[in-house]
């Protein structure tokens, strides 16, 4: 199937700014799904609020565009009711880890078979460039005119600590790796998190003098390195990418099936 | 044969009603005085292949049931005031996206943490206007266990009929007190199942295009129709729009589908109203004391009657007005500072004849409280 067959052309043009990384992520989500050969009817995409969350409307799946931060809670209801469906959640950094942080760690703790794609542009784009819990110390934003004094989360470490059984990181520069990781995350039976560093030239880039979209994407090439590489040992400030954890563990819906077996036995 | 006669708490009567109506999915968070609903369903739902989940908070609980409902399930959550406050945003989402769902609020004293283990009816207006924006909502209540059962079944039927959330607003007294409940045989009460679209695979399905009768056939997530659901103002495909004409039509539809059917949605019981010149209007636990007063004073040949409301929202104004035409005194009996009294005043021909008998101290209003108000109204002293 061609990439365009996954898109709802009726709903275009999209609302993303020129140079935004989210279109690159959408493209590679489609490529991953196309590669896996999953039927469009078997995919439910649930999102919250923000620039990244608008992906759901543009894609020809069962799509649920919900309220800010709560996509994983809605998705939990969908997945428990129809465990055979693939449930994928595109989410922004603020949506996933500020207002939605509690739902994020609890979905990870349950290890429910949902794929969370965290599109991390380190800023609230839709509201015009306020700092997010992933902006980090010393960052400029419209609500941090004297620079941010908030520290940021490490999405990978947080996800692993909370109990996610598949955790990976990639960037909008590394598109082949992105499509491959997304495909593996969807295949994984358990809660999977893929952090994708995605550029926001309009707000984060401009406020922090990081140049245009091309320069920002290029910075992902320069500032990241494969997990466990020699370069990381030599330069600890490099950000690692790749798959950090991939473990088979008891999955929530499968475990609930056992509860049903126990309950129906007790009934007889 | 399973015993169909039970001696149960009101919360359990609600569970029985929900299961009778075909409940498939419950998500909730523990909170007094509603917790028994979650506890009992954690045992009962998996016995019938249904699903129970204890979420991380009430926000997540409400969101999870909306997600489950979209896959075609009948869904429920249960909470009390503080949790109900947390659910308001997602309740508005269910209204906007027209997702059938049932929310039980077993009221306790408020505001804030309030008096968790004591009775109150202070959330009546919150159920009406708790979520932001113009909207219509359905709220139902009951004063005894057979009625809790019936109203719960009714709530599921109404939620499917109008594609809307329904709030079941109970209180600590009816939730916790024990009383006899006879569960009707399956099939005795008709159930409304989800109206699903007959549009075939490959044909353009419009999830938000109402039929001539105002109803919107649904398609289960995971089926052959792939469509978009959003809390943004949306067109007939469910896609975001800010076109004034479409936004106007959507809001009118959301309100009209309920407000235009107010008499169909209205549930109430009347006691001795035919010749009554004094009318008590009450609901929930308060109606038990009100009925006691009416039966007591009837023995003393007073022309007094009771109108017990079971549908609080949309407020059945025309019915209340008609029932109260001949009343010299109308006393609203409730455990709050007059939340339904205001609606009664707006409904009746003589608002100056409307009085309030209430308690707001966490103690169940008793017949003497009501009788004292009646005496004061008549200038008899207490």
Task: Please give a structural write-up.
The complex is a heterodimer of chains A (268) and B (382). By secondary structure, chain A is α/β, with parallel strands linked by helices. Helix content of chain A is 39%, strand content 19%. The longest helix of chain A has 16 residues. The N and C termini of chain A lie far apart (49 Å). Chain B is an alpha/beta fold and 382 residues long. Chain B has two domains: 178 residues, Rossmann fold; 109 residues, Rossmann fold (3-Layer(aba) Sandwich). Chain B has a seven-stranded mixed beta sheet, sandwiched between helices. Chain B has a five-stranded mixed beta sheet with strand order 10-12-11-14-15, with helices on both faces. A two-stranded antiparallel sheet of chain B has the order 1-8. In chain B, helix 1 runs parallel beside helix 2. The radius of gyration of chain B is 21 Å and the shape is globular. Chain B starts with a strand and ends in a 5-residue tail after the last helix. The model of chain B has no long low-confidence stretch (mean pLDDT 97). Classes of the chains: A alpha/beta (268), B alpha/beta (382). At the A-B interface, strand 2, helix 3, helix 5 and helix 11 of A face helix 2, helix 3, helix 5 and strand 9 of B.
The CATH H-level superfamily of chain A is: Thiamin diphosphate (ThDP)-binding fold, Pyr/PP domains
Specify the helix fraction band of chain A: 25-40%
Q: Under the CATH scheme, which architecture of the largest domain in chain B would be assigned?
A: 3-Layer(aba) Sandwich
User: Overall 3D geometry of chain A?
Assistant: globular
Assembly annotation: heterodimer
Please tell me how large the radius of gyration of chain A is.
18 Å
* CATH architecture field of chain A: 3-Layer(aba) Sandwich
Largest interface: A-B, 42 and 44 residues
What are the secondary-structure elements of chain B, in order, as H or E?
Answer: EHEHEHEHHEHEHEHEEHHEEHEEHEHEH
Enumerate the strands of the largest sheet of chain B in spatial order, edge to edge or round the barrel. Answer: 3-2-4-5-7-6-13
DSSP summary: helix tally of chain B: 14
């Amino acid at each position: 199937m061609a990439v365009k067959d996954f898109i709802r052309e009726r709903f275009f043009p999209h609302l993303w700014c020129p140079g935004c990384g989210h279109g690159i992520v959408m493209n590679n989500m489609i490529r991953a799904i196309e590669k896996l050969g999953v039927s469009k009817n078997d995919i439910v995409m649930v999102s919250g609020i923000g620039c990244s969350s608008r992906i759901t409307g543009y894609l020809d799946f069962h799509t649920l565009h919900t309220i800010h931060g709560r996509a994983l809670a809605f998705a939990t209801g969908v997945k428990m009711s129809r465990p055979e469906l693939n449930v994928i959640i595109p989410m922004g950094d603020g949506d996933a880890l500020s207002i939605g942080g509690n739902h994020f760690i609890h979905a990870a703790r349950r290890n429910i078979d949902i794929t969370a794609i965290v599109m991390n542009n380190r800023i609230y784009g839709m509201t015009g460039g306020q700092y997010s819990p992933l902006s980090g110390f010393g960052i400029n934003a419209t609500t941090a005119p004297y620079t941010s004094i908030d520290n940021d989360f490490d999405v990978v470490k947080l996800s692993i600590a909370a109990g996610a059984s598949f955790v990976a990181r990639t960037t909008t520069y590394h598109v082949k790796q992105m499509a491959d990781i997304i495909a593996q995350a969807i295949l994984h039976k358990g809660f999977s998190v893929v952090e994708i560093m995605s550029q926001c030239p309009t707000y984060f880039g401009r406020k922090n003098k990081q140049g245009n979209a091309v320069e920002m994407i290029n910075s992902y090439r320069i500032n990241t390195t494969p997990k466990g590489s020699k370069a990381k040992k030599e330069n600890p400030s490099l950000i690692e990418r790749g798959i950090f954890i991939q473990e088979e563990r008891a999955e929530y819906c499968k475990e609930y099936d056992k509860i049903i077996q126990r309950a129906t036995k007790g009934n007889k | 044969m399973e015993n169909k006669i039970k001696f149960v708490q009101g919360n359990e009567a609600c569970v029985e009603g929900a299961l009778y109506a075909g409940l498939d999915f419950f998500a909730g968070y523990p909170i007094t005085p509603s917790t028994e609903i979650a506890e009992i369903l954690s045992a009962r739902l998996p016995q019938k292949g249904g699903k129970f989940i204890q979420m991380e908070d009430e926000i997540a609980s409400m969101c999870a049931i909306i997600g489950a409902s979209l896959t075609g399930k009948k869904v429920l959550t249960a909470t009390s005031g503080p949790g109900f406050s947390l659910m308001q945003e997602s309740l508005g989402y269910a209204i906007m996206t027209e997702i059938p769902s049932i929310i039980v609020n077993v009221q306790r004293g408020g505001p804030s943490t309030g008096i968790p283990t004591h009775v109150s009816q202070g959330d009546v207006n919150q159920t009406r206007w708790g979520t932001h924006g113009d909207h219509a909502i359905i709220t139902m209540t009951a004063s005894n266990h057979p009625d809790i059962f019936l109203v719960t079944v009714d709530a599921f039927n109404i939620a499917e009929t109008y594609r809307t959330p329904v709030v079941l607003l109970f209180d600590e007294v009816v939730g916790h007190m024990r009383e006899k409940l006879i569960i009707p045989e399956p099939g005795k009460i008709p159930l409304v199942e989800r109206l699903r679209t007959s549009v075939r695979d490959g044909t353009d399905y419009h999830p938000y295009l109402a039929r001539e009768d105002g109803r919107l056939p649904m398609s289960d997530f995971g089926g052959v129709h792939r469509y978009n659901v959003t809390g943004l103002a949306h067109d007939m495909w469910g896609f975001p729009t800010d076109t004034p004409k479409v936004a106007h039509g959507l809001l009118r539809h959301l309100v009209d589908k309920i407000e235009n059917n107010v008499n169909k949605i209205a549930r109430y019981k009347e006691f001795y109203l035919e010749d009554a010149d004094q009318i008590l209007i009450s609901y929930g636990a308060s109606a038990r004391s009100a009925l006691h007063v009416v039966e007591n004073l009837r023995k003393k040949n007073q022309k007094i009657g009771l109108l017990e409301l079971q549908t609080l929202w949309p407020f059945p104004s025309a019915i209340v007005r008609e029932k109260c035409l001949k009343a010299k005194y109308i006393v609203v009996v409730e455990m709050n500072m007059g939340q339904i009294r205001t609606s009664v005043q707006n409904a009746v021909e003589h608002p100056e004849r409307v009085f309030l008998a209430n308690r707001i101290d966490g103690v169940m209003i008793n017949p003497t409280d009501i009788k004292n108000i009646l005496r004061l109204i008549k200038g008899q002293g207490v």
